[in-house]
Amino acid sequence: MHQSDPINALRFLSIDAVQKANSGHPGMPMGMAEIATALWKNHLKHNPLNPTWFNRDRFVLSNGHGSMLLYSLLHLTGYKLSIEDIKDFRQLKSKTPGHPEYDIDIGVETTTGPLGQGIANAVGMAISEKILSAEFNKDDIKPIDHFTYAFLGDGCLMEGVSHEACSFAGTHNLGKLICFYDQNGISIDGEIHNWFTDDSVKRFDSYGWQTICVDGHNIEEVNDAIYKAKEEFNKPTMIFCKTIIGFGAPNKSGTADVHGAPLGEDEIKNTREALDWKYPPFELSNDIYEYWDSKDTGADVNSKWDNLIESYIEKYPKEASELHRRINGDAPNNFETIFKEFLDECNSNDSSMATRKASKVCLDFFVKEMPELIGGSADLTPSNNTFSASSKTFSNENPSGNHINYGVREFGMSAIMNGMVLHGGIKPYGATFLVFTDYARNAVRLSALMGLPNIFVYTHDSVALGEDGPTHQPIEHMVTLRSTPNLNNWRPADLVETAVAWKNAVDSKTTPTCLIFSRQGTSAIQRTQEHISSIQFGGYLLEKSNDHKITIVASGSEVQLALDAAEELNKSSISTNVVSMPSLDIFLEQSEEYKNKIIDPNKPVLVVECGHPNSWFRILNRNDKVVGIESFGESAPGNELLEHFGFTKQNVIEKAKSLIND
Prior knowledge:
CATH architecture of the largest domain: 3-Layer(aba) Sandwich
Low-confidence stretches: none
Helix content: 40-55%
CATH superfamily of the largest domain: Thiamin diphosphate (ThDP)-binding fold, Pyr/PP domains
Shape: elongated
């Protein structure tokens, strides 16, 4: 075996898979092969036989279009990814899609398609490692002790989210974060000097990172840089790797032609000759497989950690039990019983309050009972009410703190939270105003796509926030969130519904949750135990008439308005059912029998919600109506705006009567 064969194996598995699929990005795997070899062969602590081993090093591919590099590494080092899976690249339902995002069973920690988010995920993983190590490590035994590595490219650093996350990482001294910047100077449009001329070294120096520049095709230089990075405990490290995209391709290397398209049969033939690669497509020697095989070394390092944990259990049984619970994602002991007691207290509380304040009441309970909850806000903590009675600020002086001040970084916060969930042992929640989901949206979408049980808290949920005006008043945002697959959105009406919404969020295993709260006050609603037990189904009957003529459905602060209008309608001999719908998403998942029991499909339905009406048509018939808003807001006091846009008892009554008369 020639000494370059193991490195070129990464290149040609990638080249041949992209060619067979007639789709993909061969240039990055060809250019980063030496960097990957230095890291994966000499430093990365992982176990192909146990991909979920908790103290493994984390590896993030932020320039995820080069996913064939990762697939090649996983196949060669011994994960459950066969050569047939490699051949199946980018095919329907294969293990090797174009941008894999997340598949821990085969070793994919996270590999982002939308550029820049991977580096932000890596920051989140490093934060989780820092928090958990501060909480659980002892002077003599350190059960949490690993690095987070990330590959990224020019595109990642052009995206603004990289600034948000990397600035934050430098501030928080994330010394266990080591990143490799593939500086090949090429993106889809060609040579980047026409649109990206930043001095990136100075940029990261200003963030407070350690910066190291190397030849990305020199394994010894890369290897030495990794050692230096691992010795720097107080700064994250960016290793600037000068590379040639499509290294080895005689006619296409160093050009955009090799970035996002197959090389073509002629260029592949020429590349085989140039790199003296004598193997046919998808065939490798046993020597190459033996070189890369990491199963024994992975099992050995995993076993040493298992022995360390045995000592930890013996010496620190309380901490070991708690760490085990966190890693498994189990609820605390007797949590269901304790929550039931809390919910009963909420039901007996008849105070009027904005649901953002109701959320604070709930957080005082949940954060106390669930130490894995790590909160935060994008510079709106007093408005979002995310700092609970048990919260302490996360900082370099207090790395075990459980509340993070993210600064004005809505997108960065959300992507960092995704990394925290992916790491494990942490349940993050992060907050901003609902209207600023526009900034955070793509990270929320990736959370839903990857099935991460993240908790996004959004306050100031409607035009009722008042004088800040249209820029701050969400209109279409609920529609956008509700149209996102695998995303549960809750807009509760009062403290009781808020408590159930929070419980649903912390219980979730594979679905993120958006908790949407009001600035304006809401009234405490009187409920029976049957009502309370039905909230979990997303929608339930608050008022039921035996011979109803119409059903009014409402969410959030409009539920009390619906109840007030129904009271007047009933006095006028118009029997009215009232449905509270805190989570339309969950309601739509219920059986047809349940949905028809709650909303009679044979009677008129009027929906009342202070936002765009398009969410609601799945539960409406053609003649049904929605009291909503289809324009942007206005700047005025909240009460005036509600009247201006028709959120009055009289308007709801008139709309209800018009449905009955039609």
